[in-house]
From TrEMBL, chain A:
It catalyses: N(6)-[(R)-lipoyl]-L-lysyl-[protein] + pyruvate + H(+) = N(6)-[(R)-S(8)-acetyldihydrolipoyl]-L-lysyl-[protein] + CO2. The pyruvate dehydrogenase complex catalyzes the overall conversion of pyruvate to acetyl-CoA and CO(2). It contains multiple copies of three enzymatic components: pyruvate dehydrogenase (E1), dihydrolipoamide acetyltransferase (E2) and lipoamide dehydrogenase (E3). Signal peptide: none annotated. Keywords: Oxidoreductase, Pyruvate, Thiamine pyrophosphate. Its cofactor is thiamine diphosphate. Its EC number is 1.2.4.1. Residues 91-266 form the Transketolase-like pyrimidine-binding domain. InterPro entries: THDP-binding, Transketo_C/PFOR_II, Transketolase-like_Pyr-bd, Transketolase_C. This is pyruvate dehydrogenase (acetyl-transferring). It comes from the Eukaryota.
TrEMBL record, chain B:
The gene is LOC107007273. It catalyses: N(6)-[(R)-lipoyl]-L-lysyl-[protein] + pyruvate + H(+) = N(6)-[(R)-S(8)-acetyldihydrolipoyl]-L-lysyl-[protein] + CO2. Residues 101-402 form the Dehydrogenase E1 component domain. It holds the Pfam family E1_dh. This is Pyruvate dehydrogenase E1 component subunit alpha. It comes from the Eukaryota. It comes from Solanum pennellii. Its cofactor is thiamine diphosphate. Residues 371-398 form a coiled coil. Keywords: Coiled coil, Oxidoreductase, Pyruvate, Thiamine pyrophosphate. Tetramer of 2 alpha and 2 beta subunits. The lineage of its organism: Eukaryota, Viridiplantae, Streptophyta, Embryophyta, Tracheophyta.
Length: 411, 440
């Protein structure tokens, strides 16, 4: 708590910093990439914030969510001079997910969608908008409100040759399908001695939204991460949302794709060419020298807010969006640790048994000798997400805390 | 719930013989009303399920307008035995096939008990003794492409579907030659080749999976335009499962989308130590079919021929694309819930009552009475099965235990799921992964 209050000043400074500094573009190694004509060059993300917002905790100021919802990711073509101009197209994150899904449905007739209100209504966040008229009610199946059963049905369909994409209208609802996700999605390939594959994608909006109350503001990564046999990825930009969606659908493993309620309206220019990302690979967001900040999903934007302040204060943080929540990309993470020797983890997940806790363990196990300081892990608080805006803000990590933590790490 | 003037006639549905249950209670039956005048094509009809009159809370009987019981298909067939040549329920070959499958189920399970007590298999082992008529009556009608979804009491379903006994026994021994390489065990029998989609050990969880398999059949026919895809799926589960939400949820979805699935309730009256009558507000499970717009059938699950007749109708209905059927088979397990269950709770009189109705003896009697088989023929089958089961045990016993290198296989269909190691290579490429010694 002290960190937050201490950080107010920093946050104010941060939001009043008007420069939309663009970072050096960083191109992660595409050696393992599945990319099909992927255009990974010349991109970086600029988080534009409304300078009028403040982080005041007295309720007078605006709230962080507004700041983040206003965050816009754009393609910054710093490499324009060296590469041919690719026009690309601009779309919002939910449209990118939809585009990825549609491309895969065009490509493979076994790909289908099932979930609550995915068809005629177009999805609660419009990720499946327009797909039912195009592909019909059977391929875009509106299910009754019976999470455990329609998830199990997706698994049965996957065992018999389909590639269902199962939407949780809200990720939290999938707690009702936990048995199917754990026992059947995760374990059945193993218990069947490898005979049956479960190529399903389970996806949906999660995370702490804007005063949605405890049940609709869940951080479920921690719940799902110990299920054997599943992979988990979190998207954070329209570019990676589309690429990860396509990769998840093509994977023979069951994949849980985490989307964040507050990121659906992020806008970005993405390539016109088809591309598929690597499910297991982390994404370098901002290369730096002093400290490694590992984050994912929405916290990426809080980190980038903080990064601006940190840069102004003379720090050069390296920001990595780990993207693959299970398994971790230990190569990208390890290389960064070996370079900076300091690690800060920023996540929205629960503190106890969360992704950050697992990541801390993995780094300690693998790269302990490279660390010059203990790992700091900023997680959201272990409380049911409160309704009140002030309390909700204090539940999740705010940029000032990140600034303070980096200062502490780099002392 | 006032009794309607016309009480339900016993011959309108398959009255279990000498039932120990309270379903003979006439007040309950009158709930059904006299709605059977509509002689539907099969075991009840969804055609007139809409409310004919506006629903009124005052007149709860109007609700029962939509409830249809079952047809007299089986009963009629059974009764017309005056001209045996044309009205026998089975041919000789069919009879021998059924007999052999039931004897296999029985002998296999008896052998499992022996092997369990001899320390050859471990864990929870649930035996199927007494219920063979259900597995045989249903599954022997299926094609190889049709799917079966089972429960934790799954050995015999797998055998009926064609999984070789030696593979099932070997799985129980935890050997690498088992149908799941020793990774599944008693409650998780799978066979992709035979479309056994699994034994599911938690109550109810197999029903959605079965519903999904049925969805695939419909999808392949209608979306992928595979016109000849008429595969059906059978979901087996017990009376205890019928109080679980997934059962109701899937009845709804299957009826809603007319999926080619048959829900087979093996009502053996006991969910471990919980009597069906103590756990269920209305113990007539078959009635839940009409409530969801599908036929509900009650059949004597100790009579393989009755089961088979009902199954034929239900399978034909599913293949035609007319949708799901709920079949309640009244049966009984001759052993405890599992081999760890001392079975002290159930009344010996109840056990004796059902023991006297052993489905294998009943079929034997039927075949003798109708000159379908001689004693020598059946004895030959008994001997053949004994040898087959002995051979299965030998095979399992001699088969190797899984080696360490197997440990990390099959966690992911695509082992890239283990991720990228610090050296930048996929961890599954590490020799330790193939050796099974990697720490994951």
């Amino acid at each position: 708590m002290a960190a937050i209050i201490q950080g107010i000043g920093a946050a104010t400074a941060l939001t009043s910093a008007s420069s939309l500094d663009t970072k050096k573009a960083f191109f992660s190694n595409s050696r393992r990439s599945l990319s099909v004509g992927a255009e990974r060059k010349g991109r970086t993300f600029v988080v534009r914030s409304d300078g009028g917002l403040s982080y005041g905790l007295n309720g007078r100021g605006g709230r962080a969510e507004q700041l983040i919802t206003n965050a816009v990711a754009t393609k910054e073509d710093t490499a324009a001079a060296s590469t041919s101009l690719k026009p690309g197209h601009e779309l919002l994150l939910f449209e990118a997910l939809r585009e990825g899904l549609e491309e895969e449905m065009d490509r493979d007739p076994a790909v289908c969608v099932m979930g609550e209100d995915v068809g005629h209504y177009g999805g609660s966040y419009k990720v499946t908008k327009g797909l039912a008229p195009k592909y019909g009610d059977l391929r875009v199946l509106d299910t009754p409100i019976a999470e455990n059963s329609f998830t199990g049905m997706g698994i049965g369909a996957a065992m018999t040759g389909l590639r269902p994409v199962i939407e949780g209208m809200n990720m939290g609802f999938l707690l009702l399908a936990f048995n199917q996700i754990s026992n059947n999605c995760g374990m059945l390939h193993y218990t069947s001695g490898g005979q049956f594959k479960i190529p399903v994608v389970i996806r949906g909006p999660g995370g702490v939204g804007r005063q949605l109350g405890a049940e609709h503001s869940q951080r479920l990564e921690s719940y799902f991460q110990s299920i054997p046999g599943i992979q988990m990825v979190a998207c954070s930009t329209p570019y990676n949302a589309k690429g990860l969606m396509k990769a998840a659908i093509r994977s023979d493993n069951p994949v849980i794709l985490f989307e964040h309620v507050l990121l659906y309206n992020l806008k970005e220019r993405i390539p016109d060419e088809e591309y598929v990302l690597n499910l297991e690979e982390a994404e370098m967001v901002r290369p730096g020298e002093h400290v490694t900040i590992l984050t994912y999903s929405r916290m990426r934007y809080h980190v980038m807010q903080a990064a601006k302040t940190l840069v102004n204060k003379g720090y050069d943080p390296e920001v990595i969006d780990i993207r693959s929540l299970k398994p971790f990309d230990l190569h990208t993470i390890g290389n960064s640790v070996k370079k900076t020797h300091r690690v800060l983890i920023v996540e929205e997940c629960m503190r106890t048994g969360g992704i950050g806790a697992s990541l801390t363990a993995a780094i300690t196990e693998n790269f302990h000798d490279y660390l010059d300081a203990p790992i700091i892990c900023l997680s959201s608080q272990d409380v049911p997400t409160p309704y009140a805006g002030t309390l909700e803000n204090w539940t999740v990590v705010q940029p000032p805390q990140i600034v303070t933590a980096v200062e502490q790490l780099c002392q | 719930m006032a009794a309607s003037a016309s009480s339900f006639t016993a011959n309108s549905f398959l009255q279990p013989i000498n039932s120990t249950r309270s379903i003979e209670n006439n007040n309950k039956k009158t709930l059904l009303g006299n709605q059977l005048k509509d002689s539907s094509f099969f075991l009840g009809s969804a055609k007139k399920l809409y409310m004919k009159k506006p629903f009124s809370f005052q007149n709860s009987k109007s609700r029962s307008n939509g409830v249809y019981a079952v047809s007299e298909v089986v009963k009629n067939k059974k009764l017309n035995t005056d001209s045996p040549l044309s009205n026998l329920l089975i041919t000789k070959d069919e009879g021998l096939e059924l007999y052999e499958d039931m004897v296999l189920g029985r002998a296999f399970e008896d052998m499992c008990a022996q092997m369990y007590y001899r320390g050859k298999m471990f864990g929870f082992v649930h035996l199927y003794n007494g219920q063979e008529a259900v597995s045989t009556g249903f599954i022997k009608l299926l094609k190889k492409e049709d799917s079966v979804v089972s429960t934790y009491r799954d050995h015999v379903h797998a055998l009926s579907k064609g999984v070789p006994a030696r593979q099932v026994m070997s799985e129980l021994f935890g050997k690498t030659t088992g149908c799941c390489r020793g990774q599944g065990g008693s409650m998780h029998m799978f066979s992709k080749e035979h479309n056994v989609l699994g034994g599911f050990a938690f109550i109810g969880e197999g029903i959605p999976v079965a519903t999904g398999a049925a969805f695939t059949s419909k999808y392949r026919r209608e979306v992928m335009k595979e016109a000849d895809c008429d595969h059906v799926t059978m979901a087996f589960f017990g009376d205890g499962t019928c109080n679980n939400g997934q059962f109701f949820e899937c009845l709804n979805m299957a009826a809603l989308w007319k999926l080619p699935i048959i829900f087979v309730v093996e009502n053996n009256l006991w969910a471990i130590g919980m009597s069906h009558l103590r756990s269920t507000s209305d113990p007539e499970i078959w009635k839940k079919g009409p409530a969801f717009g599908m036929p509900g059938v009650h059949v004597d699950g100790m009579d393989v021929l009755k089961v088979r007749e009902v199954a034929k109708e239900a399978v034909a209905r599913a293949r035609r694309g007319d949708g799901p059927t709920l079949v309640e088979c009244e049966t009984y397990r001759f052993r405890g819930h599992s081999l760890a269950d001392p079975d002290e709770l159930r009344d010996p009189a109840e056990k004796n009552h059902y023991a006297a109705r052993d489905p294998i003896s009943a079929l034997k009697k039927y075949m003798f009475e109708n000159n379908l088989a001689s004693e020598a023929e059946l004895k030959a089958i008994d001997k053949k099965i004994d040898e087959l089961v002995e051979e299965a045990v030998e095979f399992a016993d001699e088969s190797p235990h899984p080696v360490r290198s197997q440990l990390l296989e099959n966690v992911f269909a695509d082992p890239k799921g283990f991720g990228i190691g610090p050296d930048g290579r996929y961890r599954c490429e590490d020799p330790k992964f193939t050796e099974g010694t990697a720490h994951v």
